[in-house]
Amino acid sequence: MSFRVRRADLGDVAERARIVAFVEGRADGTPFHLPVWGEATAGGCGQAYRMLLAEEAGALVGLVPLTQVRSPLFGAALVSTGFGVGGGVLGDGAAARMLAEAAVGVARELGCPTIEMRGGAAIDAPGWTFDDTRYVGFMRPLAADDDAELLAIPRKQRADVRKALAAPFEVAIGHDAAALAEHFRVYGTSVRNLGTPVFPRSLFREVVAAFGDDADVLTIRHAGRAVASVLSIYWRGTVYPYWGGGTAEARGLRANERMYFELMRHARRRGCERFDFGRSKVGTGPAAYKKNWGFVGEPLGYPTWTADGAAPRDASPLNPKYRLKIAAWQKLPLAVSNRVGPWIAKGLG
User: Fold this and answer.
1) Is the predicted pLDDT of residue 319 greater than 70, yes or no?
2) Would the pLDDT of 108 be above 60?
3) Degrees (nearest 5) of the Cα angle 193, 199, 204?
């Protein structure tokens, strides 16, 4: 077989349509493989993005999207795909091996000592490792209606959801500037309280603009104030609640329970069949919370390449060396964390 690997011309309309059709036609394709995801996230965080294609006799047989992430705090990495929980090499056999080899060439050219593939099979080549013990993903089908959806939730969590449904919340859904601003205030508060920096406003703005009607913000308000909010994307019958959180009072109000149940409703009305609750680290509170909703965690495998003599970057908040920094960050005034946080977070990738 004769394969050719080349850089995609993402400015060519026909090339983009060919790529989208290939991703949509693969069972292992994700929205994080789409050009719009890579371009929006890289553009929103000031990073560089490209895509490599593998062709055989002119037919597209594989691809890998690559975001060049640069950070003075966390170092440089080539990520597939930046700011995504999925991605990696999309292809089989010899095409996949050639794409991985070509990605290493790009990493060396750009001076990136690490390649992080957010998904895909293990890569049998020098410098590559594979870890499927760190993260789990949570996805399940949406039920046919509200009653069936409630019954799909384990008893204890179902009781909390019922209480949230009876509470005097206001539900707002949109994707305009006002919706994004409200979401940023809530999400910025949520991640500050967790001790992590918030992503730039431009990241959320670019993703919503790129996905158009296939992205929106759902916000829960209590007594006129936003207390929980989630930015979601919709693709191939699946809703991906991607950036969500709540204020300090959200937990006591059960606002997050209302938010996710309302999103299930909204997604079902849009014709979605599946709810992807995203990934969580094994053994953490977020993983336990998703299990309480009746989701079963499935291991997510991530291949990583590291150049000879280099150490893989580790920007995980669970790393013990960040413990004191996280504790200090949680005490910052929100105005300060929302101003400084994006400068840090845009380099996380």
Assistant:
1) no
2) yes
3) 120
